[in-house]
Amino acid sequence: MIDARQLPLALYVHLPWCVRKCPYCDFNSHAVPAGGMAEQAYVTALQRDLEHAATGAAGREIVSVFFGGGTPSLFSPAAIGRVLEHARALLPFAADVEITLEANPGTVEHGRFSEYAAAGVNRVSLGAQSFDDERLAVLGRIHGASDTARAVDELRAAGIDNFNLDLMYALPGQDLRGALADLECAIELGPSHVSHYQLTLEPDTPFARRPPPLLPDDEAAWTMQLECQARLASAGFEQYEVSAYAQRGRRCRHNLGYWEFGDYLGVGAGAHGKLTQVATGKVERTVRVRHPAAYLAADLPQERISESRTVPEADLPFEFMLNALRLVAGFTAERFEARTGRPRAALTGAIQRAEARGLLERRDERWQPTARGRQFLNDLQELFLPV
Fold first, then answer.
1. N or C: at which end does the chain have fewer Cβ atoms within 10 angstroms?
2. pLDDT class of 72 with cuts at 50, 70, 90
3. CA 125/CA 104 separation, integer angstroms
4. pLDDT exceeds cutoff 90 at 308
5. At a CB cut-off of 8 Å and minimum separation 6, what does 6 contact?
6. Please, are residues 285 and 227 in contact by the beta-carbon 8 Å criterion?
7. CATH superfamily to which 4-257 belongs
């Protein structure tokens, strides 16, 4: 049986509003309504939601907190502080807890990061996406390249040197030179972490319904990925996940918790959670009500939960691999057993099939995706589906 008390526990807080929704985005985000985003009411709802979620955590320690969205930087530092203060009152925080706030460079006000830092935020993720103003306009972003540079200056003035830059490639009208130029601009700003990922046309988004012209083809996108990976490596960024690159000691602890099949409480409209029960070792997944209006309208905490289920034991290998195979370092059999409660023999057939197809290899005590496995990750993950 899984010893839940040995698993890292994180907290995800979803803040669902944006100034406007980008045409490529399929996240649960909503343009701020004409009447405002009901900050105070939403924070109060989050506090009640936290109280309900914490009852299943049995006093376990929080190792990371992530405010995601949406655009969390639309919320005031006082609101962020209220959420953190309430969470600390319910569950202990690790002495070195990582607390990340996502921010849009176009919503950063002078001096505001100092207030976020005072509230407890010690890591920021900036949605730069590109440093080409023409590309940013096509993506529907509300900021320009200069806004990202200004936001980084504000971060440093606030004493926050641990920050991530989100950067996309294979943008409409972008060539290899443009992708590398974006990367150079990001590197010059001195982030501790870079999330570098390809623009994809997600279903039910405006871009999927009306694809933008001049999208790079697959071969061009693959060349951009390889060249940018090489440049990031030469700048001291180690790739540790499909789209995550970090300076030494600056990997994102919160996201590692997801990829290593740790536990996390998820609160806020549409938030997902995963919690291993201390008494039974069963893995429970929850989903909150998706729309902010419905989330706010709920009278009881239970009414904010739209889905709650126990993960069947037969599904645990696939659910574990859906995360672990994104990691460059892969996984160990010991980690699989400790996080799922299943014997390593449950993986034998799928591992053999993956090896035979050149998608997985063993190095010392770890199983790692090969270069081919990383290129065809979906195919590799599907081999672990229950049969």
1. C
2. very high
3. 9
4. yes
5. 338
6. no
7. Aldolase class I (3.20.20.70)
- What is the C-alpha to C-alpha distance for residues 82 and 88, in angstroms, rounded to an integer? 10
- pLDDT of amino acid 35: 80
CA distance 373 to 359: 4
Can you read off the two tokens belonging to residue 66? 């992530």
- The mean-pLDDT minimum among 16-20, 229-233, 356-360 falls in 16-20
Predicted confidence at residue 107, as pLDDT, reads 87
d(C-alpha 346, C-alpha 141), whole Å: 46
Q: How many CA atoms lie within 13 A of 356 on its CB side?
A: 7
pLDDT at residue 1 in the model: 75
In this predicted structure, what is the pLDDT of residue 111? 87
Q: Quickly list DSSP for 95-139.
A: EEEEEEEEE-GGGPPTTHHHHHHHHT--EEEEEEE-S-HHHHHHT
Q: Which helix (H) or strand (E) holds 286?
A: strand 283-288
Domain 314-382: CATH architecture, name and number where available? Orthogonal Bundle (1.10)
Query: What's this model's pTM, rounded to 2 decimal places?
Result: 0.96
Does residue 94 come out as left (phi exceeding 0), alpha (psi in the -120 to 50 range) or beta?
beta
pLDDT in tens, 180-203: 999 999 999 999 999 999 999 999
* Domain residue spans of the chain: 4-257, 314-382
